[in-house]
Amino acid sequence: MISMRNVSKIYVPNKPPALDGCNVEIEQGEFVFLVGPSGSGKSTFIRLLLRELLTTRGQIVVAGQDLVKMKNWKVPYLRRNIGCVFQDFKLLPNKTTYENIAFALEVIGRSKHVIRTQVPEVLRLVGLDEKMESYPDELSGGEQQRVSIARAFVNRPPLLLADEPTGNLDPATSLGIMSLLNRINKTGTTVLVATHDREMVDSMRKRVIALEGGKVVRDQDRGVYGYGD
Amino acid sequence: MAINVGYFVKESFVSFKRNWVISLGAIITIYLSLLLVGVSLGSGILLDQVVQSVEDKVSIRIFLKDGAPAEEVDALQQQLLTNDMVDTVVYTSKEQALEDFKESMVQDSPEIIDQLEGNPLPASLDVELKDPRNVQAVVDSIKASETFTAVADRPDDPEKSLKYGQQIVNQLFTVTRIIRTLSIVFVIMLAVISLIFINNAIRLAIYARRKEIAIMRLVGASNWFIRTPFLMEGVIQSLIGALLAIGTLSLVYFYVLPSLSEMLAFLPISLSTADALQVSLALVAAGIVMGLVGAMLALRRYLKV
Questions:
Q1: pLDDT per residue as tens digits for the range B238-262
Q2: Cα separation, B283 vs B288, whole angstroms
Q3: Order of strands across the sheet with A82-86?
């Protein structure tokens, strides 16, 4: 699903690279944590996968598409195959839960019929079918993140990226979000979670890729967070 | 893929409502510049008609001396007709000239006719040209002709044996050229200002919708899908400006122009419906182009997709 070969990203010439010679292979259906201290390159890693950034060196293949050779106009079609969740939810405050998710389908040209059937379905999946008509500021942080996950997953993408999805949430709520991501993973979707959340990583016992100074320093199955031990 | 036109129209109007002051500014500048375009186009057509009517009156009159031999006059006439630039040559005898003069005076001042002793008027040849702009060339060729010198009323001063409207035509051409150049300069300046205003309006619209745009990109909305509402907004703004300009020009066309042509009855001031429609179409087309260009400039600078 994701294949990185010798990937480097240099933002400013003659400064230390944000990513430095990374080699990562992630198979379809995997659940992977990407851990590391701030500035270790986690966000750069995610943004490269979304092709918000281009690599300075190396090759990235996502969902069978070579991101280096990809034409700009094809990028939107790549992103339709990648669901994306962020720490700050990125919901539109003037739209209801339903409208926020419908918007994501509307702008990729899905028909009204598809929207009317898929939005309630995905809201049931994340457990928010009761809050369809609520605006984001009427929802708790955990609920807002569920809406954001619902929006990322409504199109049933084969890959879901989450950048610090529990960064703003308390531990109990975080647990709920993680189990939701786990459930999504069980449907066959590849899930990559960049996180600081030590307890979460340690309790889930999933594959862990650790970054430090832009380098992959550890990659273990059923791993733990591992820093500061 | 189903293209949801309703979505784009809705988005354009929502955005329009959101920063209507700026949009209004854009509409007013487009309105003013298109109004000026319309005025220059319309007055250009009118000017052409005026010039045309004056040109039609431009001919060369050759005054002949009394008792010029008929065969030599004939020779001159034939010689003129061989000139490519000449359309017709008409001979007016002394008697005919007097008749014409009497006719023209009989109403205003008949006493002049009574005071005439004999016939002081010379016979003449009236030369009509195919293209009035060639008048100087034809005059020069006439002056160079020996036949002309032989029959001219004042062989010592050929200039006085000829009458033609070169000066008027030249002045008219100069005036129309100046007017055209000025209006082109003004139109270009106003077009640039309108582009800046549209650019600004679209930039603010992009700024107001930056969150939506970020999410659209994230979920994979295609580039044209993100851009189209802004392009439409630019086009809608300039179309409204164009319609206002056409409205104002119609008022001029239906109410001001008829009274103007009454006041200046000696000039042919009228615009055919076809001309008016053509001007309107030109304004709509110019509006659409300006809206699209202004919006595209803004998108290129402020919306990286």
A1: 999 999 999 999 998 888 888 887 8
A2: 9
A3: A82-86, A159-163, A190-195, A31-35, A207-212, A215-220
Residue A3 within a domain: no
Tens-place pLDDT, residues A175-216: 999 999 999 999 999 999 999 888 888 888 899 999 998 999
User: Which of A125, A156, A187 lies at the terminal end of a domain, its last residue?
Assistant: A156
Q: Provide the shortest C-alpha distance from residue B245 to chain A (in Å).
A: 35
pTM attached to this predicted model? 0.70
Question: What proportions of chain A, in percent to the nearest 5, are helix, strand and coil?
Answer: 35, 25, 40
Pair A171, A199 in one domain? yes
Q: From B164, B184, B209, give the residue that closes a domain.
A: B164
Beta bridge pairs of residue A3: A25, A61
* Bridge pairing between strands B162-163 and B59-64: antiparallel
In angstroms and rounded to an integer, the radius of gyration of the C-alpha atoms of chain A is 17
In this structure, is the dihedral angle defined by the CA atoms of residues B292, B295, B301 and B305, taken in order, positive or negative? negative
A177: phi then psi, degrees, rounded to nearest 5: -65, -45
Chain A residue numbers with beta carbons less than 8 Å from the beta carbon of B11 are: none
Which structure tokens are listed for B255?
A: 């109410």
From A6's Cα to the closest Cα of chain B, the distance in A is: 26
The pairs formed by A120-129 with CB atoms below 8 angstroms and a separation of 24 or more are A122/A150, A122/A153, A122/A154, A123/A97, A123/A98, A123/A150, A125/A150, A125/A153, A125/A183, A126/A150, A126/A153, A126/A180, A127/A180, A128/A97
Annotate B145-165 with b (16+ C-beta within 10 A) or e (fewer).
Answer: bebbebbbbeeeebeebbebb
Whether this model's ipTM surpasses 0.90 comes out as no
Counted domains in chain A: 2
Alpha-helix runs per DSSP H in A33-189 = 42-49, 75-79, 97-106, 112-125, 141-153, 171-186
Q: List chain B residues with CB under 8 Å of A90.
A: 211, 214-215, 218
